[in-house]
Amino acid sequence: MTLRPLTAFRARVPGRRGTGPGAPEARTEPAAKPVTAPAARPAAEPVTAPAARPVTEPVTEPAVERAVEVRRPAPWPLRLLAMACAFVCMVAFAVVLARLTLQPSPASVPFVHTNLHPGRSLREYADQPGLRDAVQQIGGNLLLGVPFGILVPVLAPRSRRLPRVLLLTALVMLAVEFAQGALITGRAFDIDDVILNTTGALAGHLLLGRRLGRAVHARRRRRA
What are the start and end residues of every segment in region (Disordered) (predicted)? Predict the structure, then answer.
């Protein structure tokens, strides 16, 4: 029994490749590259919101009381005395007004006429050759309205404001003009007379009536 050499036996062993002559060359597979995990992305830094500014409470200034002048009315005996004097003056003025405006004048019938257009009589006064009649007519009507502007603020505390004084004067003078045109011979209604009377009341109120009304019937004002 002949024994085969060990080399021949090794050549037949499956899975083994011979190393001798004539043996096929062993194929060497390239080594597999190690699988490397992708580099992890750097963690994003957390977005921090800007620090909120501390809320400052509004600085409240201490309430300052406004200094308001407080007018005190005159004592009631003086107020009654002033109102009585104003009433007497108003009655006297009414008598004078009635004698000047409500007295018949038959000689003036051919010359008087009703005037409903403001400014017409004033232009007629200005066109006259002499200034005496114009000054007499215009100045007289202005003076008739001055007592209203002075006495009404004292007699009627609620009507001592300028618009009410002018309204009251216009109403009284309108009544006088209507009476002249409808009842008195030689008299006629003239709207320019009402305008001049009201203007006189305005002047009297601005010059003296407003001050007298405040002195007698001053209103108490509250502090703010």
Answer: 1-58
Tell me what the pLDDT averaged over the chain comes to.
75
Helix-, strand-, coil-residue percentages of the chain, each rounded to 5: 55, 0, 45
In one-letter notation, the amino acid at residue 2 is: T
H helical segments located in 52-130 = 76-101, 120-127
Residues 199, 202, 204: CA angle, nearest 5 degrees: 115
Burial class (CB in 10 A: 0-12, 13-18, 19+), 121: buried
Are 184 and 104 in contact by the 8 Å Cβ rule? The answer is: yes
Q: Please write the tens of the pLDDT for every residue from 23-80.
A: 445 555 555 555 555 555 555 555 565 555 555 555 555 444 454 455 666 677 787 8
For the stretch 12-38, pLDDT in tens is 444 444 444 554 455 555 555 555 555
Contact 189, 177 (CB under 8 A): yes
Task: Give me the phi and psi of 103, to 5 degrees please.
Answer: -85, 130
Within a 10 A sphere around the Cβ of 196, how many other Cβ atoms? 23
